[in-house]
Amino acid sequence: MNKFVATGSSIALETPVIGRITRSPLRDENSRTEHVLVATNTPIHHDDMRGYGAILTADSTESLPPGKEPFPPIVHSLQKLENFCEGDVVVVRPGRGKTGPSTVRAIYCINSRFSNLLLTEQCNSRCLMCSQPPKVEDDSYLVDEALKVIKLINKDAEVLGMTGGEPTLLKDRFFSLIQACRDNLPKTYLHVLTNGRFFVYKDFARKLAEIGHPDLMLGIPIYSDIADEHDYVVQAKGAFEQTLKGIYNLGSYGVNVEVRVVIHALTYERLPQLARFIFQNLPFVRHIALMGLEITGYTKKNLKELWIDPYDYQAQLVEAVEFLADRGMNVSVYNHQLCVIPKSIWSYARQSISDWKNIYLDECQPCAVLKKCGGLFKSAENVHSSHIRAFREGPALATAQASL
Q1: Which pTM does this prediction carry?
Q2: Which of 66, 81, 198, 292 is deepest in the core (most CB within 10 A)?
């Protein structure tokens, strides 16, 4: 269970509420409307309840004041409420039906580097290893919620992510979201995950560039240097050509692009050739992320076709990393444990797994480089490399640690 999600029972919660967490009652009632109060001092006094978007408490209804005064929606009997910090932005949703639990979910976590806004669950690709399988129903409410969240996020936030589905399918609403980030969070690095296919339309790339966001990066996947192989992975004919043209259009307008490569049984063999392809054809991209497989979503269904122990593609990974790095390209290794990749490329390994789904196995605990290791996805608890092991202190390890 996501530690940034809590469930409880609600009173008068009929529609979702979005607000910034406060743990101290605010004196100015007019400033309370955009806040959600975590009530830690119970019983709660009448005056401390008025005006908030919602009240959250771990206690039962016995802590709530009696009377018929119209209070804000209340969610009580919440577990894990201690995980929500002052300044987090949450969405409070009513339960389904008469008996379903209400939920509190942190959309932006002030102490996390991994806050992402889900903009849509619709997509024009069907990637074999998609971690967020597409849905076809109307989810336009997610954009409305995202626009509210953007206005509530701490103005000094370092980074914010946007993801889908495929955000560019939102068309003009996608641009509205980028503009909202530019206007409300001008100091915040904005990272958007997209398959890049819609940027095949040059006007679409131009409109994004004209917004003038000061620190925007688009993360776009390329899975092979061979069109048919890429198209098979994303399950969309012509996707390779659209993606490349889209990246070229973005590059021509000065929009920053990161190339993302998920490594699995269908992509690892040509990883060195793909590295050469990127250098020769896309030398202007700002970053290349070579990523381990997440065992969730469509990956579970396609695991027999996709799974390879990361230990078994070390040679291809090293060749790709060193080729790109030697030519001055910014390359990183994501979602890999240090014990399954050679020490020669440890300096390129990043702690990239979102904190709410990041774990370390029991055998990892005594490891001398545990705090530097990216760990595993929670979903990989039962499907992971057979070479996970703890490193012990020693001269060779000290030399490798110096590169981290």
Answers
A1: 0.92
A2: 292
Q: Say which CATH class 116-401 falls into.
A: alpha beta
**CA–CA gap between residue 378 and residue 90 (Å, rounded):** 23
Do residues 116 and 161 make contact, with C-beta atoms less than 8 angstroms apart? yes
Instruction: Tell me if residue 251 falls in helix, strand or coil.
Output: helix
Q: Which of 70-79, 264-273, 374-383 has the lowest mean pLDDT?
A: 70-79
Secondary structure of residue 161 in the 3-state scheme: strand
pLDDT at 1: 46
Structure tokens at 397: 């390890």
pLDDT of residue 12: 85
Domain borders along the chain are 5-107, 116-401
SS3 55: strand
Tokens standing for residue 226: 């061979």
- CATH number of the 5-107 domain: 3.50.30
Assess contact for 31 and 110: CB atoms under 8 A: no
Cα–Cα distances in angstroms (integers) from residue 263 to residues 77, 334, 384, in the given order: 43, 10, 14
Q: Hey, what are 100's tokens?
A: 């379903």
Q: Which two tokens stand for residue 145?
A: 């919620």
Cα(62)–Cα(65) distance, integer angstroms: 8
Class of residue 239 by CB neighbours under 10 A (exposed 0-12, middle 13-18, buried 19+): buried
The residue count of the chain comes to 404
What's the whole-number mean pLDDT along residues 154-172?
A: 96
Tokens of 301: 């269904």
